[in-house]
Inverse folding.
């Protein structure tokens, strides 16, 4: 204050809770925490007494009270958001100062705050204190435990190319930090469950390509996912309907069967009835029925590196080849030892209507018999030459060879060791000559102009006849 004239000292009075002394015209005052508002007064003094008092009204403002207990979750998760914390109202505070752990965000100047925990947030303390123009009050703190999410899943190991129907395929991922369980997903049609870092998968027959995925899980949620692309190779499709003859004869050869192309098949697996032979890895097969072949089923299925598809079957009836008939002559009546299925022939071919066990000849000629039962024909019987007034038996020339039989385009006729000119005629089923020629030891006959069916080859050397049965494919 200004110097007081004639004063040799100064007398100061202070509000309650304020302290310090001075006998000069200035004073430095300390306000205790219990100081209250009041007046500062001062007057001059000398030997004559006190001067007039001067006063200054003082308003003592209190600092904020100590912060109370913070309320809110003490255990949270990384990535958790909008978590609310509150502290009771702090006396004398005009604002609130909050501090948060590392990786935690949120701002407030009131007694509550909404907090977001980032994926990198760590444990620490939330603190708060009141503040006014006089300063800060005592802070309150709350310890927070931040539980981490599972770490990102590592690389999945296991087969990336599998087959429909393949089972017990193992996959593994390295242990995922902070994971208490593992969440696996599989391609469509695949099955398997696991809450650990490995899984065994079964691929159903309808399984398709896709991803095997895995992620770690705990009470805070899921970690980042790892993917493994899987190629599921399909099994062959079901085999379609087999096309081909369903009734055949023992001894019949080169019988063709075909199935439509089987999707996803790289080869075909055929099975045949007992006594039938033939091999193929394609959709077609040529089958030979032996003389001991029996009825049964032809089956086929597609195959690839993943296995077999479903089979298709075709029931086959194999009829027996009739025994070669033996014929005899009683004067002009020819008799077959076969009771049924006879057909008589002469050198001109089939004799119309001659289908009984006995046949009465009316002219000189060479006669023989073929038996046909259930569509299957026997070999040619022995040949009897009828001469009015006598009967001559001609034996078949055992050296004659006719092949291949059945024939497709070229027929070979071979007479091993023959030295004489021999003529041949090929007769159709009604006795008409369709091809003819001559040979000594061997000749090749082009047969591609012949219609499929049964034929007879007549060989003649001017002395004897021989007949061979021929099948044209």
């Amino acid at each position: 204050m200004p110097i007081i004239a004639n004063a040799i000292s100064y007398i100061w009075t202070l509000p309650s809770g304020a302290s310090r002394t001075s006998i000069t015209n200035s004073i430095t005052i300390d306000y205790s925490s219990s100081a209250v508002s009041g007046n500062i007064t001062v007057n001059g003094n000398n030997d004559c007494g006190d001067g007039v008092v001067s006063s200054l009204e003082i308003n003592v403002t209190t600092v904020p009270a100590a912060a109370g207990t913070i309320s809110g979750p003490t255990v949270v998760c990384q990535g958790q958001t909008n978590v609310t914390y509150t502290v009771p109202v702090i006396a004398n505070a005009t604002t609130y100062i909050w501090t948060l752990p590392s990786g935690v965000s949120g701002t407030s100047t009131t007694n509550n705050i909404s907090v977001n925990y980032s994926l990198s947030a760590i444990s620490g303390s939330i603190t708060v204190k009141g503040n006014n123009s006089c300063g800060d009050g005592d802070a309150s703190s709350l310890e927070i435990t931040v539980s981490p999410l599972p770490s990102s899943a590592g690389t999945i190991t296991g087969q990336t190319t599998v087959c429909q129907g393949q089972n017990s395929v193992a996959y593994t991922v390295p242990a995922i930090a902070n994971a208490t369980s593992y969440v696996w997903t599989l391609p469509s049609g695949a099955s398997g469950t696991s809450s650990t870092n490995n899984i065994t998968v079964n691929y159903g027959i309808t399984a398709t390509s896709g991803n095997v995925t895995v992620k770690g899980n705990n009470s805070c949620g899921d970690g980042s996912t790892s993917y493994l692309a899987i190629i599921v190779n399909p099994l062959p499709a079901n085999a379609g309907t087999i096309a081909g003859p369903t009734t055949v004869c023992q001894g019949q050869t080169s019988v063709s069967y075909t199935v439509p192309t089987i999707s996803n098949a790289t080869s075909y697996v055929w099975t045949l009835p007992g006594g039938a032979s033939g091999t193929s890895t394609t959709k077609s097969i040529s089958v030979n029925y032996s003389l001991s072949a029996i009825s049964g089923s032809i089956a086929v299925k597609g195959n690839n590196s993943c296995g077999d598809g479903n089979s298709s079957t075709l029931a086959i009836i194999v009829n027996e080849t009739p025994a070669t008939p033996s014929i005899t002559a009683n004067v002009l009546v020819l008799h077959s030892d076969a009771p049924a299925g006879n057909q008589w022939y002469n050198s001109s071919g089939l004799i119309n209507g001659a289908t009984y066990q006995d046949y009465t000849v009316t002219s000189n000629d060479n006669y023989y018999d073929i038996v046909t039962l259930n569509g299957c024909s026997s070999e040619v019987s022995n040949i009897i030459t009828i001469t009015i007034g006598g009967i001559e038996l001609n034996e078949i020339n055992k050296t004659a060879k006719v092949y291949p039989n059945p024939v497709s385009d070229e027929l070979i006729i071979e007479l091993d060791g023959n030295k004489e000119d021999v003529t041949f005629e090929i007769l159709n089923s009604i006795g008409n000559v369709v091809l003819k020629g001559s040979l000594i030891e061997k000749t090749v006959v082009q047969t591609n102009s012949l219609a499929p069916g049964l034929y007879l080859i007549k060989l003649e050397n001017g002395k004897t006849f021989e007949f061979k049965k021929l099948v044209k494919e």
Residues 389-398 have pLDDT under 50 and may be disordered. Residues 100 and 250 are 97 Å apart (CA to CA). Residues 9-58 form one domain.
